[in-house]
Amino acid sequence: MGVRLMVVDDHRLLAEALASALKLRGHRVLAAAAPAAGAAELVISRAPEVCLLGTATPAEPGMFDPVVRIKRERPQVAVLVLGPVPSPRGIAAAFAAGASGYVRHDERIEGVERAIMKARAGEAAVGPQLLQGAFSELLNPAAPPDDEGQRLLQMLTPREVEVLVRVADGEDTRLIAAGMNIAPSTARTHVQRVLMKLGVGSRLEAAALAARTGLLDRAGPVPRSPRPEAGPES
């Protein structure tokens, strides 16, 4: 016996094609298309057994509000979300809203029909591949991109950061010492420690690395004092 269905999607051609295919398989399709904003009202007024509700952005906040309203006012209606390959968050949001399942837009008609029959029977309708992908992503989340500038910044003391900024500004040891009110020998020691921590062999390399990784932008400005006359480095 065919299922009394609704296909609700912003993309009219997709909705009508799916509705036609389901009609050919003996199902009664009540409507083929509607804007997302009016989806809940249409489903509530028609009260089908199963509704296929299309979405293009399953992880967007509020995307499944129509599902919440449908299940609140017509709890007997099984809602199947029809969308792209979702993230685990998208699948979780759909079920949290009360959906009975999730079907990919590119699913074969046989798969869509199986999901419809499961949903009408009160079963969860999610393809094994979607579940496998969701669990895989949840159990093995992608590592966040390496923020090299932040990592390098955390290796340096505030004093060494100031030294690096001054090196990048082209200051020699004498100017660094004068600007920081320290002895030239202390300034030279700070410079060597900075080079060692950054894993570079020269001041020029240190300045280039700091600029490339955005370390200088994160470091912020350093206090400036009048520069003494340039002379031989001590």
Walk me through this protein's architecture.
One of its GO terms (molecular function) is DNA binding. Keywords: DNA-binding, Transcription, Transcription regulation. Residues 149-214 form the HTH luxR-type domain. This protein has 234 residues and is an alpha/beta fold. It folds into 2 domains: 4-139, Rossmann fold, CATH 3.40.50.2300; 148-218, Winged helix-like DNA-binding domain superfamily/Winged helix DNA-binding domain (Arc Repressor Mutant, subunit A, Orthogonal Bundle), CATH 1.10.10. It contains 12 helices and 6 strands. It has helices at 12-24, 39-46, 65-73, 88-97, 109-120, 128-139, 148-155, 158-168, 173-180, 184-198, 203-212, 215-219, and strands spanning 4-8, 28-29, 50-54, 78-83, 101-104, 125-126. A 6-stranded parallel beta sheet has the order 2-1-3-4-5-6, with helices on both faces. Helix 8 (158-168) crosses helix 11. It is rod-shaped. It starts with a strand and ends in a 15-residue tail after the last helix. 31% of the residues are buried. Mean pLDDT is 82; it is low at 228-234.
